[in-house]
Write the structure tokens for this entry.
Amino acid sequence: MAAASSKDPWSLRGSVALVTGGSKGIGRAIVEEFLSQGAKVVTCARDVSELQGHPALGQLDGTAPKLVIVAADVSTSEGRGKALGATLDAHGRLDILVNNVGTNLRKASTEFTEEEYDALCATNQGSAFHLCRLSFQHLARSKGCVVNISSICGQTSDNTGVVYHMNKAAMDHMTRYLAVEWAEANVRVNAVAPWFIRTPLTEPILK
């Protein structure tokens, strides 16, 4: 990963980041913070309309765009390939992978259908694992890192949906496992587990 300046150890100048689910909420905040720290950012979402017209879209860092937005559903193999491919096409490297995309259905455990279960697992859990797997060789080359956006729900119950809790618990353990397995390749893997943050996903229950 590009070295931080000794004058500013938090600088991400020169780093290339792929952030999933970056059109709103926590993902959007991550995109904005990374841009402010000098990173070149590629972000993807199913609906990128909220990012259209972003001032960073028209700016270059050297010859590379500061912000690239990709309409992609990373719960699918095609969408993951599209997001990672756009990153490599734009910048030729990857330093930071942020697995942020996630969704939830708040209902009683006995009311989930198989289709709902599969869809939540594909978005919240499968997308993160497969993007880690696909990105490893590029992260190893740059001595980069993975940041998984988990949730306190991976550690305790807040009664907002059993499948989401299962997914975040799985993400936490995946993070621990990959952190050990990939340490030899100098790829760091960490997770952030926030409590409720006011986003479009949580707004209905925070009113």
